[in-house]
């Protein structure tokens, strides 16, 4: 396989030095920290060595870097220099390839026929500069034994759809002026990481597909004001079907043109960086669309060029194809894809979609994952594990500050541990148990049956050495066929009684619990917090993309910002609470690293209290009972209420005077520990945050 020389200009900082064989004789750190993994030490060591061996192979025993290897996007596809255009494609099953397009009236002509390089096996075509021009549409006409077909180049960096015919074509993209970055370097804020998950197309009020520019001008300012420091953008990689939410990718190197031009996407990312907002991309390497004309499904008459053979080729639940991670050419394609998005568009990292599906031959379907044996029983795809490990090594080799997040539900140990420790190298894993827990609690239990101890355990039950992204709900819970938390709490009353002054008891309950659920989730993080666009203010509608079943309507494929802007409605309360909550988390540097210390729980009283640093979080989850002088043993001193879910300004009743400073009561028995009694009035269905004041002597 041929590669271009790396274009990386800055020195490479290696973050994961390969371990020596002598070092490997000792148990890996992952195992040392978790004795339960001792029984599976050989499997863990085997996966680690598999990645080490593959790393050595791809880097020629360390003579080059992984960054040098992952440079296929500068070699394959269509490129131009000062002298000519050059096109390359990896298509071993092809017998002939023609470039067809506007420039030759879509005809197969000799001057546009590629030749097979006898040394590399790649198909190559050189053209004079005047042969093709910026904006020209083109495809490949590929011949193979027994057939032929039109295809979009696998490495195409610009793909567009004809508005009339709906046919996709690659497009020559070489504007006279390249985008000039205002912010050339950027360091994400991760103390803590506060993610706003979003979708460009449905981010506006209008019933249409939104653009990169509209998002930059209209939505980004909202995110900045709300206090998030990172946006996670879905559906960037080109996908034929808009309603797939971007998860059925056809062109992996092309930013979706339905939202605008590459320069407009760069301008959005640049503007975010100028305002201190990191931008990570929802990258889909877990599967690919089955389409043949638009995608890689049968690229050159070989349905297995990029994908597994036999029964492993198709994903049984997703109607898609599974990459063959055991092929070096596929590794080259996917690793180069990671590097391309980081360097060309300045993304700050990735949320890797469908990691569970990659890890297991079963794709995790029908498996309970109730014990450690489920992770090491031979049902795991070692090739996929190796790829994910290499991807993390590459991304952090390019820039150690880049962020990687795994969407993974099984709980695979080591996923978010460093490679040198025996892990796979992700910075974070999605805490997917948390939204599932909230849904189950709301659906199956009466308010009176909520147990503070169970809630606290679910929110804090995690591997101590792996960072999580906690969230109440992502896009998954907002889709048609499911329900957001606010809609599960209030349902149709949102349509009739969400005007200020007209709230029913059901609406008041929903508003109160929505704030409490978010506060519980965000305040117990050990890495970061995520919110899906609109959920911060209780967006009332599900997401339903245009399809035949809804008359191809955009009514539900949008976000109704007018609701939160309307000062006559209750949405503003939920949005303002979200802003104050994030402000509070950011007021404590490295909040995510502060230990979560349980102060008290009583399932009978429905009371929960825990501390993080100088912050004390107190909840009364009882729907009716309030308590006077409810006592907690806390460090002696004065405490101020800094956030109250029941404040009138946040849609509550304002029962408590937030301005009153509360002093601890001395107790001789607690004196030696520096503690006293904090006695609080704790009304029903409330969340309070108090801060211990610093006494100036």
Task: Give structural notes.
- The chain is an alpha/beta fold.
- Among the domains are: 72-171, Immunoglobulin-like (Sandwich), CATH 2.60.40.10; 436-539 and 551-593, no CATH class; 595-692, Golgi alpha-mannosidase II (Immunoglobulin-like).
- 26% of the residues lie in helices and 21% in strands.
- The protein has 18 helices and 30 strands.
- It has an 8-stranded parallel β-barrel.
- Strand 6 and strand 7 (147-151) form a beta hairpin.
- Helix 5 (212-226) packs parallel to helix 6 (262-274) and helix 7 (328-345) packs parallel to helix 9 (382-398).
- The longest helix is centred in the C-terminal third of the chain and has 19 residues, at 505-523.
- It is globular, with a radius of gyration of 27 Å.
What's the topology here?
Blueprint: H1 21-24, H2 29-33, H3 41-58, H4 66-69, E1 77-80, E2 84-89, E3 94-101, E4 115-116, E5 123-128, E6 137-144, E7 147-151, E8 159-161, E9 168-171, E10 193-199, H5 212-226, E11 230-234, E12 237-238, E13 251-255, H6 262-274, E14 278-283, E15 288-289, E16 314-315, E17 320-321, H7 328-345, E18 349-352, H8 355-359, H9 382-398, E19 403-406, E20 428-430, H10 433-444, H11 452-460, E21 468-471, H12 475-478, H13 485-490, H14 493-496, H15 505-523, E22 528-532, H16 561-565, H17 571-587, E23 597-602, E24 607-612, E25 615-620, E26 627-635, E27 638-644, E28 662-663, H18 668-671, E29 675-682, E30 686-692
Parallel strand pairs: 10-11, 10-22, 11-14, 14-18, 18-19, 19-20, 20-21, 21-22
Antiparallel strand pairs: 1-2, 2-5, 3-6, 4-5, 6-7, 6-9, 8-9, 12-13, 15-17, 16-17, 23-24, 24-25, 25-30, 26-29, 27-28, 27-30
Helix pairs in contact: 3-9, 5-6, 7-9, 15-17
